[in-house]
C-alpha cells in the first residue's frame, strides 16, 4: 500500500479518491497538462500562443487546465493592462521541476513507440 502522512497529520493512501497526492497526480496525468508544461518549458507564452501551439485543445480545456496548473502552483498567470488584455503564462520553480520527469517520459515513449504501435495494430486485428 502506498501511504504517506499528509500535512493534516493523518495517513493518506494514493489509491483513495480523497488523497491529495492522487488529486495532483490526476492533474499532472491529464490529457493536456504535460503538453502545456512542455510548451512553457522554453519560457513565457501568451494564452493565444499556447492555444496555437497545442493542436486540438479547445479554449475551454486550455483555460481549465491552466487554472488547475495555477492552483497547484505549477504556473503563474500575468495579466497585462492593455487593450485587448494580454495574459502570459510562465512555469514556476515547481513547474520547472516537472521538466525532468516529463522529458524522461517522452524519451521512454520515443524509445518504445514502435512496440506500442505494433501492439495497437495487433489489437485492431
From TrEMBL:
Per the database record, which ranges form the HTH hxlR-type domain? 19-117
Supply the alphabetized keyword list. DNA-binding, Transcription, Transcription regulation
Which InterPro entries is this protein grouped with? HTH_HxlR (IPR002577), WH-like_DNA-bd_sf (IPR036388), WH_DNA-bd_sf (IPR036390)
Indicate what this protein is called per its UniProt record: Transcriptional regulator
Source organism (scientific name): Nocardia sputorum
